[in-house]
Design goal:
The chain is of the alpha/beta class. The chain folds into 3 domains: 185 residues, Class I glutamine amidotransferase (GATase) domain (Rossmann fold, 3-Layer(aba) Sandwich); 189 residues, HUPs (Rossmann fold); 102 residues, GMP Synthetase, Chain A, domain 3, CATH 3.30.300. It has 14 helices and 18 strands. It has a 9-stranded mixed sheet with strand order 2-1-3-4-9-8-7-5-6, with helices on both faces. It has a 5-stranded parallel sheet with strand order 12-11-10-13-14, with helices on both faces. The two termini are 48 Å apart. Bound molecules: xanthosine-5'-monophosphate. Xanthosine-5'-monophosphate binds next to loops.
Amino acid sequence: MSQEMVIVLDFGGQYNQLIARRVRECNVYCEVHPYNLSLDKIKEMNPKGIIFTGGPNSVYAPESPICSKEIFEMGIPILGICYGSQLMAYLLGGKVATAPVSEYGKTEVTIDTTREMFKNVNQKTICWMSHTDYIAEAPADFTVTAITPVCPVAAMENKERKLYAVQFHPEVMHTVEGMKMLQNFVMDVCGCSGDWKMDSFVEKTIEEIREKVGKGKVLCALSGGVDSSVAAVLLAKAVGKQLTCVFVDHGLLRKNEGDEVEAVFGPEGPYDLNFIRVNAQERFYSKLAGVTEPEAKRKIIGEEFIRVFEDEAKKIGAVDFLVQGTIYPDVIESGLGKSATIKSHHNVGGLPDCVDFKEIVEPLRLLFKDEVRKAGRELGIPEYLVNRQPFPGPGLGIRIIGEVTAEKVRIVQEADYIYREEIANAGVDTGLGQYFAALTNMRSVGVMGDERTYDYAVALRAVCTSDFMTADCAQIPWEVLSKVANRIVNEVKGVNRVLYDCTSKPPATIEFE
Ligand code: XMP
């Protein structure tokens, strides 16, 4: 399938996928590739433009990533960003040096607004800088198109050769008019028409999957979450009955969730796939009996999940491919992976170690969460599934403090259901990153109908967050909270108190364990 494409060459910067995402926001398909992608491969891909990313290196450092100089002779428009701009200058005869002062943060840049790259941009505009080296002198055949008090060459271009470079980062939000600049590059300089949409991603990915999988058998661990659902439906469209989805109901799902997932993916649903629901509640509850330590609970649930999945995989036999709903933030998080373990996360990402597959298929690997949601809509997945809030792999097991029992699961399911229902009724869910009920392990004295009670306290949590790494406690209107509290104590047997968690993350975390 031929379609307009811009490729991003990765020189090790942190914003590589963000650049690709910005290009896709211009409705132009974009992929990230390693900086040393061969020229033959580039020719074959026939991109309308190439973007060099930033990176932590200096062009003079012995190990720094350097691409072939011939890339500039291909006649394809190139935009170098930060390290990418310095590399362009360096390879084409300019001078790169250590800046007298490193610029970091929002910086006022003065630009030449007559240039195509800067069409409709203000002459003085705030851009995000983050560099130690800079272009001290542009190559002889280049024109300087922007400066800052520190940078004599904050941007440069050679219009005839279609080579452009910016020292700042147009892709980040802090560069106020960055999106305009990228749009100018992609549409005006590269001449893209911007006719790509998420449905083209869907079509293209389906074709690629068919090619890769051929007649092979594919297995998907379906959790019912957004990512694995979208991945499963993509695969189902691509290879139909060659796909089997295994949905493990560990008895720690939200109320009705197992049935909801089955309604969409099971035999009554719209997709033609083999669906296996494993009702493994008892298996999980018995493993969890008597266990109270949060990490131990997480490990037991993760391990048991794998065992159940493995049993099913063996029954199916000779499976060639495993589908994973890995999305881009998961890739970054696992890539960084150097920080201390706060909680050992479990999701289907842990599976391939234990089951023998020829290959892993990760069709969403390059997408951000909202792009996955868009793809889900294109695939016709119901809105309530596409818009779901994140739900942790260990499920309610980490929202029940202390030992997990079937009775406690029932309490937290009921309370959570009421909470979600009232939030939806009141229409206050916009802007909430996550909200749920948890069961504290605290019992306290209450009075109901003249009788003393000694029951559990439910805690309600709601947070605003975009990255889930930090979060603020959400200010849910009091009327909503008091209605929820009333309903919970009246309708959920075993609860006589409802608390609202007002802590942010840090110091708390979003989940309770
Ligand atoms: P915390 O509690 O660490 O949660 O602030 C941050 C985000 O991660 C989710 N979470 C998990 N997701 N497997 C997952 O797939 C897990 O084990 C897990 N633990 C926490 C949590 O719901 C929140 O969105």
